[in-house]
Amino acid sequence: xxxxxxxxxxxxxxxxxxTLVPWQTLTHWQWAWKPRGPVLAERHAHAAxxxxxxxxxxxxxxxxxxxxxxxxxxxxxxxxxxxxxxVAGHPLPAAESEAVVERFLHPAHExxxxxxxxxxxxxLQAGSRQVGVVTYLxxxxxxxxxxxxxxxxxxxxxxxxxxxxxxxxxxxxxxxxAKRLGAKPSQTVFVGDLFWSDVRAAGRTGxxxxxxxxxxxxxxxxxxxxxxxxxxxxxxxAPPVPEASDPAVS
Length: 250
Description:
Number of strands: 6
Order of helices and strands: EHHHHHEHEHEHEEH
Structural class: alpha/beta
Radius of gyration: 18 Å
Strand order of the largest sheet: 3-2-1-4-5-6
CATH superfamily of the largest domain: HAD superfamily/HAD-like
Strand content: 5-15%
Number of domains: 2
Helix content: 40-55%
Number of helices: 9
CATH class of the largest domain: Alpha Beta
């Protein structure tokens, strides 16, 4: 069966953390846990963060499809505590762990930036496309992230402030975000850095979903991928013919 031609994109939704703004980084965890302490072992910490983020991606998907309870801010904090324990290599006292999670969620340090983010947003907007940012993170955290990354806080169209019924990765959340940009899901492109709970979840709504794979670590994923946000404006302007089957990973 021949694939139908892609509908012209009127809107682009961007995931916030680790797509538009660095978040699960060694620098952020260093500041949250040991801002004045010994430098964390880079190789170990990177591996621990990657492993935990992958587990969180699958956990969010499991909540979406009913295999486990849906994720919320409490489960996200559990994920952060688990990541901290993995980075540390051993359990921490509850009080210390909680303090680190609070610092992680309310950072006071200067954010790292992705060099391609601001130019990408400007290019998309110059092409008369509506651009919005979505996240499951607390609204005040999201606004801080955007501000410190040099991006407008007005880009934020969906966060935890919209309530659990619209919390990502629920389909209702993706649809609401597209509607707020004046577009249907079929007219919207979504870009995220996680395959299951970003790309596949958005794709279930009829959006064209695109995986941002900065490290080229997901070569086995058959979903559409880009390595940099600098590729996004061109991809949106001339998207490839969509696959006839649902994107999958082997």
